[in-house]
Predict the structure.
Amino acid sequence: MSETVNVVCYKSKTLKDGSHPLMVRVCKDGKKKYQSIGISILPSHWDFKRNEPNDRCPNSDEIKLLIQQRLYEIQKNILSNRIDGKDYTATTIIKSVTEQPKSAKSVGEYYLTYIDNLKKENRIRYAGMYEVSYNSFIKFAKHLDIPFSDIDVTWLKRYEAWSKEQNLSVSTISTRLRHLRAVFNLAIMEQAIKSECYPFHAYKVSKLSKETAKRALTKDDVHRIMEYEGKSLMECLAIDIFTFSYLCAGINFIDMAKLRYSNIKENQLIYNREKTKKLIIVPLQSKAIKLIEKYRNDKSPFIFPILSPFHKTEIQIANRLHKVLAKINKYLKEIGAKLNLPLPLTTYVARHSFATVLKRAGVSTSIISESLGHSSEKITQVYLDSFDNEQINEAMKNLL
């Protein structure tokens, strides 16, 4: 009889906080054996059909990576027994894995493991972002062949100061430190390090977001951008991307690039956000509809000429998006300079401007908040999801 191996939320045991331990379950020859992976989870944060954390679960990415790694260890052990012709049971499989000595991995090794796991999940874009952060830490510290205990509050403050000397934006520094924090969380969940080594209790990455420079424009400035006449195809595309984002609830570039004509139903834009996987429904204004028609191409399922049927693999898509976004932002910055705008113009400015214009128009913050994105984005989207289309339609009228 073949064995089955998975990780389950073990509801037969409930902890004081209402959570249940996550357990590896090995079934073989009609017998089951369980072994805790060292963390627990609330039932509301677990998808019992897929046996994985759901979108509401904090640190879901780290937990998924831990689960994947633990299952890989067990499957590797089973395969080794098969190759050697050894007999095994559910109990011996669990025992052999749990008795394996844990090597003290360095920060660098854990970081690279995290990146490798992202690639295995086909999350190529995020893996690339973590690689950029990893290289930044290497440039700062010369190497990451160090124990986690070496990275304390002082180390983080020195990296922050060094990054500012490199003229990195506050948002970039914040992103890279959050990546490092995610690697720490994975190491703690795997019980490879003690929680006492965690420096992010004292060093708050969130404080950096408060220093982030202004990214929103006034309605008048937005109109000036929308009325700008592009001198080339790329300038026109850059203006149209900015305009569409502004008119469609601050949709970001990645989501916009992947939009298909099938995402349009009854003058509404309906799609699942790439980052949060949440369903977004946006009423389409006449100007947005005109932009859709402007780029209509019967040979491509995509609304905008960014991706094409040629781009099939995750790596091809990620490379194409990175290349085009860099060009779009280059042209937007040049246009912003020509218009003497008070800040560098990028696609992300459209997202912030959408929220800020509505707020300045008196639209309730319970419908749309100023801070779209980053740590408060999920909260904002929960608010948006709770209102009907008529309320959102009325709010969107304030954009023009």
User: Anything to note?
Assistant: Confidence is low (pLDDT under 50) at residues 369-388. Strands lie at 4-9, 20-28, 31-41, 46-47, 52-53, 264-265, 268-272, 279-283. The longest helix spans residues 60-84.
